[in-house]
Write a structure and sequence with these properties.
0% strand, Four Helix Bundle (Hemerythrin (Met), subunit A), 6 helices, mainly alpha, 84% helix, binds fe (ii) ion
């Protein structure tokens, strides 16, 4: 397997969550029932799986390897990707704050959760397209087979150090549960 294939596989799980978030935002806007626990679980998924693990692999391993091949940081795709990761973190924080306020009976915070979910979804759908169509294509062209092996080993280390074994299965269960509840 190539490092980009592993990342594309993770994009599939993230995109499934974006679909669920779109549906939850729609339910909030239509004043249908949404459980705050689900919002908290989604925030946890985004913080751990999408940000710490997936963006961690990109920011700490793949992007530095690409910079080393001569792709510039400024005015290039890597600078844009880093900026979008940090924008995403702002939206995750808004969801997290919104969930806390919602629990404290602040009804208006539901709307801010819906907005943050829609903003995050739009940002990440486009972000994933850019990575898969531009940056990952460059990565496949520029990184030697040996370098790709090294990157995969570092990805494995991030899985162990940051996420911990067994967590991936838990997140897949969460995705299936939320999908059954909000989409199917
Ligand atoms: Fe990314
Ligand atoms: Fe990505």
């Amino acid at each position: 397997m190539k490092p980009t294939e592993e990342l594309i596989h993770e994009h599939k799980a993230i995109k499934m969550m974006l679909g669920i978030m779109g549906k939850i935002a729609e339910n909030i806007q239509n004043e249908k029932n949404v459980e705050v626990k689900d919002v908290e679980d989604i925030v946890n998924f985004l913080k751990t799986f999408a940000d710490k693990c997936h963006h961690g692999k990109e920011e700490n391993v793949l992007f530095p390897a690409l910079l080393a091949t001569g792709i510039p940081l400024e005015n290039g795709p890597i600078g844009v990707m880093l900026f979008e990761h940090s924008q995403g973190r702002t939206y995750i924080q808004e969801m997290s704050d919104g969930a806390m306020n919602w629990k404290n009976q602040d009804a208006a915070s539901a709307q801010s959760i819906a907005n943050a979910m829609l903003n995050y979804s739009t940002l990440m759908q486009n972000h994933i397209l850019k990575e898969e169509n531009v940056l990952f294509v460059l990565a496949d062209q520029r990184l030697t087979a040996l370098k790709q092996e090294e990157i995969l080993a570092k990805f494995e280390q991030i899985e162990e150090d940051v996420v911990g074994h067994g967590i991936h299965e838990k997140f897949h269960e969460l995705l299936n549960q939320l999908k059954a509840k909000y989409i199917d």
